[in-house]
Amino acid sequence: MAKWLYRTGQACARHAKVVVAVWLVLLAGAVGGVAASGARTNNQFSIPGTESQQALDLLSRSFPAAVGSSAQMVFVAPAGQLVTSAAARAEIGRALRAAAGAPQVVGVVSPFSAHLVSADGRVAVGQVLYPVSRMDLRAGTTAELQRRVQNAAGDGRLQVVLGGNAFGATGVQVGAGEAVGVLIALVVLLVALGSALAAGMTVLAALLGVGTGLAVLLSLTRVVAISSTAPTLALMIGLAVGMDYTLFIVSRHRAQLASGMTVAGSIGLAIGRSGTAVAVAGSTVVIAMAGLSVVGIPFLTVMGLAASFTVLVAVAIALTLLPALLGLLGERLRPRTGSAAARSAARAEAPGTGRWSWARAVVARPALTIAVVVLGLLALAVPARGLNLAMPDNGSAPRASSERVAYDLVSRYFGPGLNGPLVLLVQPRPGSSRQVPGLLAAAAQVRSEALRLPDVLAASAPQLDHAGDLAVIDVVPRTGPAANATKDLVTSLRAQEPALLAATGTVVRVTGMTAVGIDVSDRLAGALAPFAALVVGLALIILLVVFRSVLVPLKAALGFLLSVGAALGAVTAVFQWGWLSGLFAVPAVGPVVSFLPIVLLAVLFGLAMDYEVFLVSRVREDYMVGSSDARLSVLTGAHHAYRVVVAAALVMFAVFASFGATDDAIVKPIAVASAVGVLVDAFVVRMTLVPAVLALLGGRAWWLPRWLDRVLPHADIEGRSLVGTPEGGGGRHKAPATRRPRHQVRPHLR
After folding, report:
1. Does the CA dihedral 16-20-21-26 come out positive or negative?
2. Which domains does the chain have, with CATH numbers?
3. HSE, side-chain direction, 13 A CA sphere, residue 29
4. Residues in contact with 411: Cβ distance below 8 Å, sequence separation at least 6, in sequence order
5. pLDDT, tens only, 399-408
């Protein structure tokens, strides 16, 4: 692989203008596709095969009004006044008539006919009904509803707040926070590379890659259902890895130029060696993210594939466009004699510097270092034992948003269960000829049994569809959609289904968006262990081939699990327990979005492997091509890699932290968990635990059975095939690690 990438890098540099032109044409074509498609995303969390989804699909065909989205109109009277007064009734009537004429509205429900007036008479809730789900509402539909209702209210004294499941964020949410993150990353790159030109080129290449990837994804929204979270996650991951990959290559190129290497030779060698690490690291990210498809939940599959695609584009940019840009800039990237960058390159080999000293301190007492790191990370992971998961609702929306204000008002005056009612679908037994009166009587009996459950606050009278062959009952829990008690209520209702079938001759199914969310959470919880086994297993195979070692991949996986545990512990403490929730601007303390663990597992595993591959490949490169002393190779490889790993981790942290400033209830905890996980993994696991383990193992770290050595393909990540090229240095290749005798550790390294 190294030899092929070496040639690819030099070819792209020689034909730089053609390569740049091809990428610009691809970007222009993708942007044109976005304009043609309209980039319409949706937030449908479906889960095929579950009871709730099957019933929801049936209702959408037979009784769409029962499962379509709805908006709540919450009317609040001033202190000392009532919504039941004549003036207030007149104002509510005007608002309802205005809402009835809004686009796509099929009906409105008065708060007085629905008996949704609070006990103190100050608050009333009306409903606006749509025949379609929120994802099928046309752009601007809810905004037009708000405009009409507010105009109808005029200068009335009632406060009118709109909410309900028709409202919520859609589309890619990018704001000032993300721009600040990119600027911080630019500053980090400027310090790490010592050149404004090199730093700017790194950011430009990453932005071009993520822009192309996102444009291609958004151009597919007419043929593939893409959730609004998928492009945001793809943007976050693509931007982070794009900057990291270009940094890995550009930093090596600058160091080689400072040592006197020619521009063409340096480009080839940088792509051949660091580019190999980029290709391997990118493949682990792609495997991890694409592995989300095995869970069997469509929106999660799309999220994983979208992120995988942007990572593939980032790798392609780093291996083709980047060498072309390096070729165009030529000598302008060579550090000037006497400059800070040149002095830094000259000190790269010198012992006694900060990086060398840290590596020596880490490997001086490897067993003690390992014990301290492992115990510390296990302590950080303790809060994760109490992690509570649920699907997000308007209760986790920003506090100032209309949907959040409406949610809180409804919870306060009518109970949180009204924000997420359950739906009971009642059908005659298959083959039964039950007529409408009999079905209504059976549904009424089902309603009575539901009301007997202590966690049920209210239940509506049964409603029949037009054909009269199914009935629908709305059940209002006493607790909110994300509460554990609501989940227990769904379980209790489903436990009654056999008895209701025997007593009433009807099939009863529990559905509605709240029940679907609960089923999604259950499916995710059950898929977490198999997904982890699949992703970790595939990545272990890749690392086994790359490093030709049995112990190094195992060490990488165990270190990753420690990082994930620490990240989940931090998320639990902040988002569920409320620690530092003000600092992180958490809109509501409570359950965390249910697919956070599985997405974090995919994201963090792939990104953690970036640092693992880059750091360990430098150690192995020194061991196989340079020094034959295993412990000295750990020191030298870590010394070479530390600066880039630190810079890459800070860049990735800046990107993730900037997305943590968003108000999106799904993206925010994922971004915060990823930011914490990156810091822990880079500084604690890769820069501390990994060198300690490698030092403790010594030459045994590269042990591989001879029969396996013969079977495995050679990835050549350390670039041994480049030894003998003018840029790679002369000399013969060293014998494989499995055949090298143990060497004594040099005295000054003990």
Report:
1. positive
2. 2-40+171-382+542-739 (no CATH), 70-163 (3.30.70.1430), 402-517 (3.30.70.600)
3. 6
4. 395, 418, 419, 480
5. 888 999 999 9
